[in-house]
Amino acid sequence: MSRFEEDARLAVEAARWAPSPFGRRPWRFRIGDRRIGVRADAGRALDVADPQGREMLIGCGAALHTLALTLRHLGHAPRVRLLPDPDLPFLLADIDVPEGGGDPGEETERLYEQVEPRHGDRGVFRPDPVPAGLPATLREEAGREGVTLRAVTEPRDRDALGALAGAADHLEPYVPGRDPARSRGWGLPEVWGRPGTGLVVLLTTPEDSPAAWLGTGLALQRVLLRARAEGASAAFHTHVLELPELRELIRVRLCGGRFPQVLLRLGLLDPEQVPPRRPADALVQEDY
Ligand SMILES: Cc1cc2nc3c(=O)[nH]c(=O)nc-3n(C[C@H](O)[C@H](O)[C@H](O)COP(=O)(O)O)c2cc1C
């Protein structure tokens, strides 16, 4: 195996730590001559919850960001080319990895260190607020991928989202217990607004297209890794956006008409068990 192939394998390994709907990791990679292809694996999409493949592509974007970050950590200078071709919707990106590269730099290393230990939190956070500058930092991270991060700090709006998340729990019986808040309280009237709710954020895009979904995934992983580098962990409540009527309500009333793609709470870390990952062997194929 060439040095490049070895590094490409390491990057594929690292991408396994990216978040994906139900942890299904719906992506595939093809390792070529100083090149890695990235595609969605529709066979691992969620037919009922995600008929358009929106969440699938968000997960793929998070994996793509992780892959490129790891290549930079390994001293490469990857060039990511997104492939927004409506006729080939599952081919997502080509990454060229030219000879040369260099020192990854402190910032890359700091973010890379978060890849493996990052995981979704499953409960109420510690009551302390997140660091004061965090929302602005995360807004900037998301903005680099053309995605808007909105911190929902107005109690009225936050409570409305909590109520809708609770409603989605009742309306989506096929995935009982998926929402990490379900058994922990967020989404229940008596606990909305408690300090352990954390900072509620929405990622939104001006359009609702496969390119926007992929971009959201790139932004999501940027946000999650940066948040963790600043000591904050995330809980997902994106299931509420799987119900078109609720998503439309959130779009119109809480996102100024932009399309809501991901709903998260961010709070201070609680140590917790890390879930298992699919092995890298299952993710690399000749014919993908
Ligand atoms: C697009 C997307 C939507 C998600 N929606 C939810 C959700 O609604 N509720 C939830 O508990 N987790 C959700 N997750 C988190 C995944 O369940 C989680 O990433 C996966 O189980 C792997 O765990 P980890 O992130 O801790 O590595 C979502 C992840 C992605 C990428």
Task: Set down the secondary structure blueprint.
Layout: H1 3-15, E1 27-32, E2 35-40, H2 54-73, E3 79-82, E4 91-96, H3 106-115, H4 134-143, E5 148-151, H5 155-171, E6 199-205, H6 210-229, E7 232-236, H7 244-254, E8 259-268
Helix pairs in contact: 1-2, 2-3, 2-6, 3-6, 4-6
Bound molecules: flavin mononucleotide.
CATH class category name of the largest domain: Alpha Beta
Mean pLDDT: 88
CATH architecture of the largest domain: 3-Layer(aba) Sandwich
The CATH homologous superfamily of the largest domain corresponds to NADH Oxidase
GO molecular function, one term: oxidoreductase activity
Protein name: Nitroreductase family protein
InterPro entries: Nitroreductase-like, Nitroreductase/BluB
Organism: Thermomonospora umbrina
Molecular structure report:
The chain has 288 residues and is α+β, with helices and mostly antiparallel strands. The protein has 2 domains: 3-116, NADH Oxidase (3-Layer(aba) Sandwich), CATH 3.40.109.10; 134-268, NADH Oxidase, CATH 3.40.109. It is 35% helix and 17% strand. It is built from 7 helices and 8 strands; from the N terminus they run αββαββααβαβαβαβ. A 4-stranded antiparallel sheet has the order 1-2-4-3. Helix 2 (54-73) packs across helix 3, helix 2 crosses helix 6 (210-229) and helix 3 (106-115) crosses helix 6. It is globular, with a radius of gyration of 18 Å. Bound molecules: flavin mononucleotide. Flavin mononucleotide binds at residues 19-23, 55, 58-59, 62, 119-120, 178-180, 236-239, 275. GO terms for molecular function: oxidoreductase activity. This is Nitroreductase family protein.
